[in-house]
Design the sequence.
C-alpha cells in the first residue's frame, strides 16, 4: 500500500476506506435514478398513469432492492459494509412507505391516484434518502463517537442520573408538562384558523361562518397565553427547588471530604462548581427539557396540519431538518470543548481573585499589586480569547443556518406558485402554511439547539456528579463516645507522608506519650514534624504506619463529633468567621450559655476587653476577625476551646501574642480538671514550664525529658537553647 510519507498508515487506510464507501454510494444513487427513469419511461410509452397502485410500487421497490443488493456485493468484491445495506434499503423503500402513509392519512372520499409523475419528486426522493442516511450515520450514530471511549461515563446514563434528582418534584413536573401540552395544542391551531378567516373574507370558503372561525381563533389564542404562562411559572419553581436540593447535596458531600482533597482543589474552583456549575446544570437540563418537549409536540401537531394543507410543501420544509442536523452536529463538537475551557477559566479566575483579595495584606506588604494585576490580566486575556473563538463559531454557524433556511424557502415558494396555478392550494391555505413554516423551522432549530446545549453540559454534569459520588479517602468513624475520658494519648511508631510528597516521610516511627494532668511540649526547628503530629491527632490525616491511641483505643474508633469536642486546638493564627464574638465562641455548639462564656473569659483575662467593646459579646468582629488584634483573636480562640470542656488541649503557639500574666492564667485554666496539654512552641522559655519536653528533628524524636534533663545532656535541645 502506498502511504504518504510522515503520515499514520492506520489513518490513511481509514481515509481510503471512507472514500471507497462514498464512491460506492454515488454509484448506487446513479443506478437507482436510472432504474426509476426506466420505469417512468416505460409507463409513458405504455401510456399508463400508474404502476399498479401501491402493490406495484412495493413490488418495484422489492425488485430494485434485490438488484442493488446484488450489485453492492459485486462492487465491494463480496465484502459490503452494513452502511451500504442500510442505504440501499432506504433508497428502495422510502417511496413506497411515503405513498402508503399518504394513503392512510388521505380522506376516505379521495381514492388513491398513484405516485406523482413529476420527475422532480424522483430527485427529491434520492436527496431525502441520502440526507437521512447521512444524518443517521453521522449525527445519530455519530460514526462511533457515542462510544468513543469506554472509560467515559455514558452520556445517556449521566442524563438519566440527572433526571432522578427531579423525583421529589414529580407532581410539579406533571402539572408543568400538562400545561405545556395544552398550550402547544392551542398555539398550533392559531395559524389554521387565521387562514380560514382569510378564505372567508376573500370569499373562497363558505362552509364556515366568520363568527365561528373568529371564536375559535380567540379561544386558541387565549388558551395559548394562559397555559404558556402557567407552564413557565411551574417550571421555574421546579428549577429553583432542584438547584436548592443539588447545592445542599454537593455542599454536604464537599464537607465530608478529607483535607488533602481541599489541598488539591482550590476554594475558588470548588465555589464555582457549587454555584455556577450547579445553576448551569439544573437550568440547562430543566429548561432544555421544557423547550425540547414543547418543540417536539408542536412539531408533530404542525406536521399533521401541514400535511393536510400540502404534502409537497411539507416535504420541502422537512428537508431543512437533516441539513441543519449535520451543521449542528459539527457546531456541537466545536463548541463543547470551548465551553468546558470557559468554565475552567472562570473557576481559575475566581480562584486567583479570591487568593489575591484574601491575602491582600501580604500582597500590600510586598508591593506586589502590579504583579497580581498582571496575572489577572493574563487570565482575562485567556478567557477573552476563548470567548472570541466561541463567538466566531457561533456567527459562522448562524450564517450557514440562515443561508440553508433561505434556500429552502425560495424553492418552496416556487413550488407553491405551481400548486396555486393548478388550484391544488388556496391563498388562505398558503398563508396558513407560511405561518406554520417559520415556527416549524424554529421548532426544529430549537430541538437541535437543546440537544447541543444539553450535550455541551454533559462535562459539567459529570464533574458535579463526580463530587457527589466521591468517597472520602479516610477511615470511617467508630461509635465510641464514653462519658468519662482520661485523655492519655500514645503515638505508637507513627509514620506518615503527605499525599503531595509520598516519598518524603514527614514522621518516621514517632513514639510519644501524653499523660493526663501534664504539659507535654513539642519543640524543634521548622519542618521537624510538630504540625504533622497535630494534624494526625485531630484526624485531619491518617498515619500510613503505626497508630495513635486515646485511652488505649485507636482514634478512628471514636465518633468524629465526640473526638472534635474532647480534643481542642488553639493555633497561633486562629480562624474566625464574620459575625459576633458570641457566634465565634459558640461555633459548632448547640447549648452554650452566656454565663459560661463570661466565666471562662474571666479565667483567661479576656472578659475585661470584651466588656469594653460597644456591644460586648454581641460585637461584630468583621471579616475574619479583622476588627480584633492578634492577641484578642488568640484570646477568643482559647475561650472557644475551653467552653467545650475538652479533655485534651493542643496549644500551637497559641499564647505567643499574649502578655505574661494572661499566658500564666491560660496555662492554669487548661491544666484544671486533669486535662492533657500538648504545647507546640518555638519559644523555649515557654517550654521550660512543661512537665515533659519532646525534641523533634526531621520527622523523628531525637530526645525527650524535662528541661533540666535536656540541658544537662548538652545535645540538640541544649544547642537550640543556647542559640
Sequence:
Amino acid at each position: 500500500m502506498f502511504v504518504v510519507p510522515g503520515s499514520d498508515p492506520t489513518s490513511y487506510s481509514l481515509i481510503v476506506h471512507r472514500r471507497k464507501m462514498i464512491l460506492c454510494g454515488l454509484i448506487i444513487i446513479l443506478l437507482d435514478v436510472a432504474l426509476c427513469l426506466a420505469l417512468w419511461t416505460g409507463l409513458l410509452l405504455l401510456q399508463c398513469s400508474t404502476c399498479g397502485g401501491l402493490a406495484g410500487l412495493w413490488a418495484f421497490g422489492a425488485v430494485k432492492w434485490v438488484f442493488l443488493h446484488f450489485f453492492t456485493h459485486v462492487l465491494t468484491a463480496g465484502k459490503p459494509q452494513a452502511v451500504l445495506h442500510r442505504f440501499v434499503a432506504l433508497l428502495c423503500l422510502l417511496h413506497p412507505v411515503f405513498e402508503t402513509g399518504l394513503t392512510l392519512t388521505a380522506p376516505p372520499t379521495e381514492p388513491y391516484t398513484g405516485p406523482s409523475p413529476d420527475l422532480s419528486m424522483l430527485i427529491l426522493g434520492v436527496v431525502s434518502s441520502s440526507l437521512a442516511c447521512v444524518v443517521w450515520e453521522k449525527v445519530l450514530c455519530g460514526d462511533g463517537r457515542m462510544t468513543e471511549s469506554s472509560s467515559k461515563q455514558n452520556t445517556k446514563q449521566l442524563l438519566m442520573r440527572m433526571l432522578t434528582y427531579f423525583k421529589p418534584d414529580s407532581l410539579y413536573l406533571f402539572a408543568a408538562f400538562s400545561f405545556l401540552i395544552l398550550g402547544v395544542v392551542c398555539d398550533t391551531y392559531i395559524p389554521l384558523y387565521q387562514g380560514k378567516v382569510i378564505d372567508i373574507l376573500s370569499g373562497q370558503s363558505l362552509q364556515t361562518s366568520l363568527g365561528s372561525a373568529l371564536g375559535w381563533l380567540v379561544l386558541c389564542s387565549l388558551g395559548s397565553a394562559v397555559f404558556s404562562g402557567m407552564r413557565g411559572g411551574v417550571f421555574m419553581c421546579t428549577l429553583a427547588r432542584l438547584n436548592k436540593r443539588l447545592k445542599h447535596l454537593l455542599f454536604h458531600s464537599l464537607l465530608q471530604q478529607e483535607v488533602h482533597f481541599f489541598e488539591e482543589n482550590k476554594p475558588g474552583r470548588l465555589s464555582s462548581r457549587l454555584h455556577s456549575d450547579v445553576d448551569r446544570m439544573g437550568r440547562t437540563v430543566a429548561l432544555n427539557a421544557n423547550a425540547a418537549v414543547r418543540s417536539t409536540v408542536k412539531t408533530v401537531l404542525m406536521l399533521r396540519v401541514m400535511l393536510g394543507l400540502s404534502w409537497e410543501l411539507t416535504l420541502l420544509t422537512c428537508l431543512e431538518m437533516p441539513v441543519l442536523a449535520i451543521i449542528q452536529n459539527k457546531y456541537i463538537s466545536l463548541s463543547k470543548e470551548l465551553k468546558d475551557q470557559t468554565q475552567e477559566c472562570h473557576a481559575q479566575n475566581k480562584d486567583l481573585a479570591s487568593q489575591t483579595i484574601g491575602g491582600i495584606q501580604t500582597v500590600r506588604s510586598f508591593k506586589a499589586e502590579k504583579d497580581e494585576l498582571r496575572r489577572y490580566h493574563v487570565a482575562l486575556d485567556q478567557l477573552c480569547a476563548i470567548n472570541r473563538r466561541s463567538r466566531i463559531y457561533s456567527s459562522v454557524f448562524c450564517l450557514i443556518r440562515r443561508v440553508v433556511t433561505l434556500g429552502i424557502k425560495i424553492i418552496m415558494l416556487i413550488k407553491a406558485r405551481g400548486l396555486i396555478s393548478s388550484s391544488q392550494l388556496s391563498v388562505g391555505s398558503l398563508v396558513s402554511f407560511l405561518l406554520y413554516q417559520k415556527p416549524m423551522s424554529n421548532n426544529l432549530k430549537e430541538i437541535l439547539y437543546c440537544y447541543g446545549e444539553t450535550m455541551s453540559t454533559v462535562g459539567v454534569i459529570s464533574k458535579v456528579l463526580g463530587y457527589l459520588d466521591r468517597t472520602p479517602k479516610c477511615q470511617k468513624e467508630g461509635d465510641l463516645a464514653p462519658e468519662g475520658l482520661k485523655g492519655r494519648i500514645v503515638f505508637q511508631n507513627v509514620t506518615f507522608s503527605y499525599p503531595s510528597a509520598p516519598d518524603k516521610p514527614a514522621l518516621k516511627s514517632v513514639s510519644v506519650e501524653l499523660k493526663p494532668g501534664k504539659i507535654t511540649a513539642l519543640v524543634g526547628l521548622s519542618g521537624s514534624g510538630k504540625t504533622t503530629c497535630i494534624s494526625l491527632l485531630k484526624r485531619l490525616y491518617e498515619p500510613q504506619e503505626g497508630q495513635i491511641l486515646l485511652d488505649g483505643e485507636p482514634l478512628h474508633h471514636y465518633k468524629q463529633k465526640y473526638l472534635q469536642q474532647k480534643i481542642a486546638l488553639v493555633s497561633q493564627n486562629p480562624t474566625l468567621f464574620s459575625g459576633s464574638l458570641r457566634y465565634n465562641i459558640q461555633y459548632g455548639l448547640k447549648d452554650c450559655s452566656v454565663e459560661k462564656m463570661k466565666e471562662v473569659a474571666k479565667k483567661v483575662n479576656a472578659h475585661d476587653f470584651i466588656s469594653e467593646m460597644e456591644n460586648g459579646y454581641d460585637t461584630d468582629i468583621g471579616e475574619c476577625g479583622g476588627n480584633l488584634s492578634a492577641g484578642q483573636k488568640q484570646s477568643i480562640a482559647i475561650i472557644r476551646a475551653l467552653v467545650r470542656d475538652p479533655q485534651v488541649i493542643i496549644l500551637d503557639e497559641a499564647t505567643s501574642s499574649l502578655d505574661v500574666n494572661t499566658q500564666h492564667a491560660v496555662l492554669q485554666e487548661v491544666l484544671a480538671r486533669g486535662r492533657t496539654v500538648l504545647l507546640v512552641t518555638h519559644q523555649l522559655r515557654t517550654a521550660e514550664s512543661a512537665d515533659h519536653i519532646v525534641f523533634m528533628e526531621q520527622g523523628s524524636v531525637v530526645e525527650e525529658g524535662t528541661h533540666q534533663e535536656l540541658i544537662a545532656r548538652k545535645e540538640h535541645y541544649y544547642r537550640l537553647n543556647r542559640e
